[in-house]
């Protein structure tokens, strides 16, 4: 039987940018459309349209909501905080953005359409610090999924953010720039690497997570294609992808095929337990979809994608993990990287971190490449911390020409051996 589906979407996007105390950019767009997908076995036919009026079955599931206006108040607070926190701050750019998306999915195998309303607000702080004629830049972002709102003078609703959250955001940006003034580029070589809790989850996402997406395994291009049910890392390690995580950056109620969000255990006690499935891969493997069919917009067909991917905590303290390393590095924050899904080889650029010498964090480091193989790095994790942190920074994942928001998390972990590219 041919499977057919209609995916309807309405998205309102706003953003404000503040530089030098002045709103330098403001955008407000509303886009709506309907995509039609037909599946015959594993072949896909996809078309879309942008109607002036959305279909009644979509409108029935999405009543009109109060208008939420972005105002520069929160941006002015970010700017003021940055200048007050560190006298070396010479420039500040603050950004607030929102995406409000309504989706509905109707198909020929379900009794009724499903509807989902998704709200996403992002705060960003860019700072430039000057010290003895030298400049360094720091950046931090924060995603809000269920913020508070306050009435404004225009009788609409405006975003309210606690001052403590704004201060934490700005301090992260300032700390990153300040770190770079003192950081050195270490000697390279093969060595133990301690991944800090939280943002280091990007390594888990990129170097390992993509290889668990079922389309790569269906096509036999993932290194895990023949590993289902096998031990792929040490006992005690469990990795999940969880779209139900409260306030998760990549959370939702239904995926873009209309399947309920769920928490999928990819690795259970070191054993490969599941891939991430959309309808096509689920039918191929004879399993149920895992709620991971995602698309950037109505212009795109869905493919298997991660949501919030993280490792469950272990029983080691971060201090004990660091003390176990005689010579290595502590990886704190990353920027860009490259990954080969098939072979699992990766290169990541480390933005900030520290040397570990005789079990202690010593000199701050910068400009370091970390090179390795995802499955091998997973197998080389020997200690898992008890301090799982979910990264709340704005993160997007690119695949098949599409970008979707994703969350990541990690407790502190020790990878026994990775290649560090330094001087």
Multimerization status: single chain
* Uncertain regions spanning at least 5 consecutive residues: none
The total strand number stands at 26
Biggest sheet character: 6 strands, antiparallel
Shape: flat
Alpha-carbon distance between the two ends: 60 Å
The average pLDDT score comes to: 95
Quick tags:
423 residues, alpha+beta, six-stranded antiparallel beta sheet, six-stranded mixed beta sheet, 8 helices, flat
What does it look like?
The structure is a single chain. This protein has 8 helices and 26 strands. The protein has 423 residues and is of the alpha+beta class. Helix 2 crosses helix 3. The longest helix has 20 residues. It starts with a strand and ends with a strand.
Secondary-structure map with pairings?
Layout: E1 3-19, E2 22-40, E3 43-49, H1 56-59, E4 68-69, H2 73-85, E5 89-107, E6 114-131, E7 134-144, E8 148-151, E9 157-160, H3 163-182, E10 189-195, H4 201-208, H5 214-218, E11 239-242, E12 263-268, E13 271-272, H6 279-285, E14 293-294, E15 303-304, E16 308-311, H7 318-323, E17 327-339, E18 345-357, E19 360-365, E20 368-373, H8 374-379, E21 381-384, E22 389-391, E23 396-399, E24 402-405, E25 407-410, E26 413-421
Helix pairs in contact: 2-3
């Amino acid at each position: 039987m041919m499977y057919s589906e209609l995916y309807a979407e309405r998205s309102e996007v706003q953003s404000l940018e503040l530089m030098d105390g002045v709103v330098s950019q403001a955008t407000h767009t509303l886009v709506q459309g309907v995509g039609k997908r037909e599946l015959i076995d594993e072949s896909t036919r996809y078309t879309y349209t942008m109607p002036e009026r959305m279909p009644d079955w979509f409108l029935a599931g999405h009543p009109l909501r109060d208008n939420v206006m972005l105002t520069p108040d929160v941006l002015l607070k970010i700017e003021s905080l940055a200048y007050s926190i560190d006298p070396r701050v010479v420039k500040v750019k603050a950004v607030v953005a929102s995406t409000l998306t309504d989706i509905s999915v109707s198909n020929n195998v379900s009794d009724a359409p499903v509807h989902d309303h998704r709200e996403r607000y992002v705060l960003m702080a860019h700072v430039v610090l000057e010290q003895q004629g030298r400049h360094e830049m720091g950046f931090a972002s924060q995603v809000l999924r269920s913020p508070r709102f306050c009435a404004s003078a225009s009788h609409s609703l405006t975003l309210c953010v606690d001052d403590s959250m704004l201060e934490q955001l700005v301090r992260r940006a300032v700390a990153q720039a300040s770190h770079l003034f003192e950081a050195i580029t270490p000697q390279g070589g093969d060595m133990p690497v301690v991944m800090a809790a939280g943002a280091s989850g990007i390594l888990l996402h990129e170097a390992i997570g993509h290889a668990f997406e079922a389309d790569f395994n269906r096509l036999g291009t993932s290194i895990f294609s023949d590993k289902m049910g096998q031990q792929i890392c040490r006992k005690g390690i469990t990795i999940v992808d969880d779209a139900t995580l409260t306030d998760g950056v990549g959370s939702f109620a239904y995926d873009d095929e209309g399947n309920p969000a769920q928490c999928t255990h990819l690795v259970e006690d070191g054993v490969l337990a599941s891939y991430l499935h959309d309808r096509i891969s689920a039918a191929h493997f004879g399993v149920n979809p895992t709620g991971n069919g995602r698309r950037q917009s109505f212009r795109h067909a869905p493919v298997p994608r991660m949501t919030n991917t993280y490792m469950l905590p272990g029983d080691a303290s971060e201090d004990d993990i660091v003390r176990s390393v005689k010579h290595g590095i502590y990886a704190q924050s990353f920027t860009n990287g490259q990954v080969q899904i098939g072979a699992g080889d990766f290169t990541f650029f480390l933005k900030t971190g520290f040397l570990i010498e005789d079990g202690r964090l010593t000199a701050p480091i910068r400009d370091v490449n970390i090179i390795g193989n995802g499955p091998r790095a997973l197998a080389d994790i020997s200690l898992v911390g008890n301090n799982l942190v979910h990264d709340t920074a704005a993160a997007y994942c690119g695949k098949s020409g599409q970008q979707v928001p994703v969350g990541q998390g990690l407790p502190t972990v020790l990878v026994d051996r990775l290649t560090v590219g330094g001087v």
